[in-house]
Design a protein that fits this description.
Elements lengths: L2 H8 L2 E3 L7 E2 L9 E4 L16 E5 L15 E5 L2 H12 L15 E2 L4 E2 L4 E2 L4 E2 L4 E2 L4 E2 L4 E2 L4 E2 L4 E2 L4 E2 L4 E2 L4 E2 L4 E4 L4 E3 L5 E3 L5 E4 L4 E2 L4 E3 L5 E4 L4 E2 L4 E2 L4 E2 L4 E2 L4 E2 L4 E2 L4 E2 L4 E2 L4 E2 L4 E2 L4 E2 L9 E3 L4 E2 H43 L1
Length: about 350
């Protein structure tokens, strides 16, 4: 496709020569006839060396690195290079075709289930009693939908997913392979003999519209009431959400994070990978928590950035980390001073002895 045609698609401002674009690539890997992009400034060093024929840049961007190039590169300026590049990925690498809107002959569907039109239900899918499956829903092979589950219109359930009884899935939800929605919450009461009594888990999970759940996530059902993932939230792979947790709207959480029971996370939060949240705490709206942080108490002010173990406001963490880096030298200086003090004390003691004599 000609670069000028791509420019129209992304509503950009083109400068440079016309060229045929055959593909899209990352800035450090692009070759001739590729188009790339720059949105993260830590990659700007590649502006001088990328072999791409064209690049998407921000509207007001000016980079001295472009002036050192030995070969010309055409530029399309757009409001958001990253979003524009995503649209071009779809153009050059369209998504896989959806499965045919049919019900596979090996699927087992309870007679009391309600199945809307235009659904695709794959091989060996099991759908339990009184389930309601909305129109346009796609359920890939080997998934299990237990009794009294509701799945909203146009949702996509990938293979080997388990959705337990009474859970509610909204519209346009995507659940990736291996996820378990509605497993029992981790509740056990200690008994006098040291064993444990299982606490009944009789609630459910509610996933609202436009949520995406990554592969092998586990979202536990509430003891009573609901574990809730609110509209627009995105969960990466391998995340554990415990019983009675509430995650607000449009929050994003990276892989291997664990959220303990009865915690509440606000709207528009960003949580890095391998973060751990203790139980029964609240996280304010628009909070950012850095990767591998441990959060032991509630965060009450919105818009703050936290990092560390235990998690503190990031500027405080940086000061502590800076002090820790100085500890080896401080210990050396302390031991040196300690040795000098001991030497001075010995000299003073010797002088006192001489004066007495």
């Amino acid at each position: 496709m000609l670069l000028s045609e791509l420019n129209k698609l992304v509503h950009g401002e083109l400068t440079g020569t016309e060229v045929e674009i055959l593909g899209v690539a990352k800035i450090e890997e692009a070759g001739a006839n590729d188009i790339t992009f720059l949105s993260n400034l830590k990659y700007k060093k590649h502006l001088a060396t990328t072999k791409a024929s064209a690049i998407l840049l921000s509207t007001n961007a000016e980079f001295t690195e472009l002036q050192t190039r030995k070969t010309p590169i055409s530029i399309i300026k757009v409001n958001d290079p990253y979003i524009s590049f995503l649209h071009l990925i779809d153009l050059f690498h369209p998504p896989a075709s959806p499965p045919a809107k049919v019900i596979h002959q090996t699927a087992i569907i309870a007679s009391t289930a309600t199945i809307a039109v235009d659904v695709a239900i794959g091989a060996n899918v099991v759908i339990g009693e009184r389930c309601i499956i909305g129109k346009g829903v796609i359920i890939h092979p080997n998934s299990t939908i237990s009794d009294d589950v509701k799945i909203g219109d146009d949702s996509l359930i990938y293979a080997n997913t388990a959705i337990r009884e009474q859970c509610k899935i909204g519209e346009r939800v995507i659940i990736h392979s291996g996820a378990v929605i509605g497993s029992d919450g981790f509740g056990f009461a200690p008994k006098p003999d040291g064993s444990y009594e299982k606490i009944p888990q009789r609630g459910n999970v509610v996933i609202e519209d436009d949520v995406e759940i990554g592969s092998n996530c586990t979202i536990d059902r509430a003891t009573l009431g609901s574990t809730i993932i609110k509209r627009g939230t995105k969960l990466d792979n391998l995340i554990h959400v415990a019983h009675n947790v509430i995650i607000g709207e449009n929050t994003v959480i990276a892989a291997q994070t664990g959220i303990s029971g009865s915690s509440s996370i606000g709207n528009f939060c960003q949580i890095g990978g391998q973060v751990g949240l203790t139980g029964h705490i609240s996280i304010a709206d628009r909070t950012t928590i850095g990767a591998q942080s441990g959060v032991p108490k509630s965060i009450t002010e919105s818009g703050k950035v936290f990092f560390g173990y235990p998690a503190r406001e990031i500027h405080e963490t940086w000061r502590i980390e800076g002090a820790l880096r100085q500890l080896p030298q401080l210990l050396y200086d302390f031991r040196t001073l300690q040795k000098k003090i001991e030497e001075l004390e010995n000299i003073i003691s010797s002088l006192k002895s001489e004066n007495k004599s």
